[in-house]
Amino acid sequence: MADTITIIDDRTGKKVTVAITGGTFPSSALRELDPNLFLYDPAFLSTASCASAITYLDGDAGILRYRGYPIEQLAEHSTFLEVAYLLLNGELPTGDQLSKWTHDVTHHTMIHENMRKRFVDGFHYDAHPMGMFVSATAALGTFYDDAKDIFDKQSFDKQVLRLIAKVPTIAAMCYRFSEGLPFVLPNNSMPYAQNFLNMMFRIGEDHAIDPVLARAMDILFILHADHEQNCGTTTMRVVSSANSDPYTSTAAAASALYGPLHGGANEAVVRMLSEIGSIENVPSFIEGVKNGSGRLMGFGHRVYKNFDPRARIIKQTAYDVFEVTGKNPLLDIALKLEEVALEDDYFVKRKLYPNVDFYSGLIYQALGFPVDMFTVLFAIPRTVGWLAHMEELLGDKEQKISRPRQWYIGPDERDYTAINKR
Ligand code: CMC
Question: How far apart are CA 300 and CA 351, in angstroms?
């Protein structure tokens, strides 16, 4: 059977046959038929916007791989910085490469004093940390006059390093500000996740971070590092396609992530569980969802129509964390919700399974993070994925500035009416 598709324009009888490659065919086929014919695809349900070699996702089979490596193996054996190197460079680092990369990241963690004293101090005391994170990330670029040199490989790599190294510092700074706590400087002798937890929670001199909790944070960072063309990453690519600098592009991607249907879902899950309040209320809550009074947050996914493989790993990590912190009281409600939903026709028919956000919030809460910080915890590791996609886009000769077309449904031409005649 030929790997081609033939499209016939019944208006003219013209037909075009093009190759199907990697499950896609080029939209130029439509332009060949008629330059004014466009595919109408709201929310990109049937559009592949790029060719990418970074992350493979099979939503029906529940498979997720970074550069070919199964997420389960990376979560078990790797560290976040090793995974970051893999996503950015395409291969796992050698021992020397990993030492240099780790050294470089840990020695770029400081941020300019003006960021904290003048920029962050300007926020209202109860500003949402994600709003602060988005604006601080964009502002960070203004401190580097080489930020815009995106086609100079050395300069681009430097911005990548700076962003990956500094986003945990920015995140912790936003949190400490909102709590009225003094800022904790980064500690270059600590691994990435441990240093982040230290900057977040250190009070006084003797504040040891439990290694189980630091490892759980690192695993969560690995699981969130990339997820191909989701809303935030697509935003990153669209903004980068205009050749904006990596800081403002990252801020734009983080803005998309902020939404409750995307990275904000982990926050929404914990709020939902708190509102449900007890196991007895689960059935009536599920009935409410089925009758249209809201969604079961942390369930469903545009691509996964099977278990989100990240959700399985996170569920296990949750138990490891609760061994140290004690069980999050919302866990029982979450387990019951999962049990009821997975047996209910409504959810089964629509292939709605727990996604990455269903259990992550419970871990964040057990680690001591306030709910407002949850999406920031998603944005820190996803910065790696965004930057890997930006670099791939800039090197892709087929890419141009993103500029979709529209189907105009407004009024035809009409004459201006004077205000006293309306
Ligand atoms: N609870 C109840 N019903 C749902 C849910 C849910 N969580 N998700 C989808 N549905 C229903 C929806 O009402 C629709 O039903 P019907 O066909 O009768 O109209 C059907 O399932 C298909 O939903 P959809 O909105 O067309 O699916 P989508 O692919 O556009 O949306 C989603 C995907 C993730 C936005 C959606 O499942 C959702 O809102 N989930 C809750 C929010 C959430 O957990 N988001 C985190 C996503 S994973 C992390 C990330 O990517 O950031």
Answer: 7
